Amino acid sequence: MPQLQNAASLSGAVGGIGEKTRDPSLFQPSASEVNLYQLHVEDLLSLNSHAEEDLTVTDLDNKLLLCDLLDISPVLTEAASAIIDDSFTRCFKSNTPEPWNWNLYLAPLWCLGVIFRYGILFPIRVVLLAVGWIIFMALFFPIHMALKGHDTLRKQLERGLVEFMCSVFVASWTGVVNYHGPRPSRRAKQVFVANHTSMIDFIILEQMTAFAVIMQKYTGWVGFLQTTVLESLGCIWFNRLESKDRLVVVQKLKKHVEDPDSNPLLVFPEGTCVNNEYTVMFKKGAFELGCTVCPIAIKYNKIFVDAFWNSKKQSFTMHLMRLMTSWAVVCDVWYLEPQTLHPGETHIEFAGRVRDLIAKRAGIKKVPWDGYLKYYRPSPKLTEKKYTPAPFFIGLYAHGSPKEEAVTQ
Amino acid sequence: MGNSSSLLTQYDLEDLQNHTNHLFSQREIVSLYERFCALDRTGKGFISADEFMGVPEFAVNPLCQRLLKMLEGLNFKEFIALLSAFSARATQQDKINFIFRVYDTDANGKVTASDILQVLRDLSGSFLSDKQRELVLNQALEQAGYTKDSALTTEDFSKVLGNLKMEVEVPVD
């Protein structure tokens, strides 16, 4: 597996929207890198002094040089290996559960289960959810309007209401959530980070503490909720497709953590939903804010349903339907020890260290890929950085001088 | 995506195995079929270039464009026939033939210096100038007993390239 340690830092260099807008001349390696190679080549091409006498070329030696140039097998092997199985696609694969072995008693039991889930559980849950919504709306908007002047009281009530609504949500899929570790406290200069599997991560965490989350702005009924309810919590929006948006968002984040009255900030540094078996690289944005980072690890138990939301395959509504027609959603949430930047550690290393903690606690594997590669192609700069023309120089060093003059660039 | 091995019957598996000269085991073919279906997101029966480029590990490979021309639009049978060169059971000749095909873009059975230069350009990109590449290549060709106008065949490739190690393990669960 090629080591792409640069992937996170190059997330900014990930190409623009679509390949048509990419101008290859923008992605040349730096002048100093090219110069280094040029120097090597000129050095070798100009070695005239030991020309004929030292060249004890046997037939074997002759062919070795051409064979170095022609042998592209390592590159091809890596390409084929990527085609056959690659760690990035594995992060987003939802494993379909093995079908039960049908036999005389399991098949009817399963059918009974389906009837119960769709016919009895699902309607009860829908009713529960609807009632919860009505209560929430009936209380939230009046309070929001009426208590405009009394901000502290209003915010307290709104927080309580949001926590209530999230509990209703969790109940609507019979969520069995085990929380471990000390509950988050309200303090300035702290940010919470967690691994991301589905939007329900937010709901599960929100029912315990009213976080202000930073999330992608959606349209539809989710978007409506975002603009009305979640704004009041201090949530921050971004747009994945706007690369300049990043700086604006970082400013907003900084402002938020400075304010001691604001709700604790929750960030999902992976930037996208991953299938809870792997974690992709953490973006360093949340780690550059100069505050303590409190990691949260979330691990879902797939026993009844797989909570991974494959946003490319399903809408959020369909995803919710699936959860609501399953027996239960079981998960564990661990609140881990707050971490600060170690002296001499870069932000990227800090992000990596926190990711290690979360991955270890949740028992999930790490892959060195940027989650945004789900939306963009890798920039040609990554290819340039990874592949240097080593065979040339191994071959040339081994077999000494040419007979022709140096070529100056 | 359902349990895809149920879509391949025993008859299909044997047919596919014969087509690839038994270079893949039946379990490997099933694994490859699942992978093919996963990459072919819209279920067309072949994988488009865009779907291949959606694999970042593939997209950063300098030879990806060349391989794309060989791979895109293939149905599953042709796909595994092409990839069979990477099986541990494949012969040296199979591997050499594959490498030859990568170089021989116009498929006329001959690889000229300009064909080789194009592949070298893909590999070394902006690190070297065209002139430097040409110089290095001509020197190498002469030392091996060819000229810059020679057209190499698969036999020449076999002679020049010794023992090749080019295999990929197909994960079977």
From TrEMBL, chain A:
Keywords: Acyltransferase, Lipid biosynthesis, Lipid metabolism, Membrane, Phospholipid biosynthesis, Phospholipid metabolism, Transferase, Transmembrane, Transmembrane helix
Pathway per the UniProt entry: Lipid metabolism
Domain Phospholipid/glycerol acyltransferase: from-to ranges: 190-301
InterPro entries cross-referenced by the UniProt entry: LPCAT1-like, Plipid/glycerol_acylTrfase
Record-linked SMART domains: PlsC
Residue ranges crossing the lipid bilayer per the database entry: 102-120, 127-147, 159-179
Main subcellular location: membrane
Assigned protein family: Belongs to the 1-acyl-sn-glycerol-3-phosphate acyltransferase family.
PANTHER family: GLYCEROL-3-PHOSPHATE ACYLTRANSFERASE 4, ISOFORM D-RELATED, PHOSPHOLIPID ACYLTRANSFERASE
Protein name per Swiss-Prot or TrEMBL: Phospholipid/glycerol acyltransferase domain-containing protein
TrEMBL record, chain B:
Domain annotation EF-hand: ranges: 27-62, 91-126
Organism domain of life: Eukaryota
Protein name: EF-hand domain-containing protein
A Pfam family per the record: EF-hand_5
Keyword DNA-binding: no
Keyword terms, alphabetized: Calcium
PANTHER family named in the record: CALCINEURIN B SUBUNIT (PROTEIN PHOSPHATASE 2B REGULATORY SUBUNIT)-LIKE PROTEIN (PTHR46971:SF1)
Key word Transmembrane present: no
Lineage: Eukaryota, Viridiplantae, Streptophyta, Embryophyta, Bryophyta
InterPro entries with a match to the protein in the record: EF-hand-dom_pair, EF_Hand_1_Ca_BS, EF_hand_dom
Taxonomic source organism: Sphagnum troendelagicum
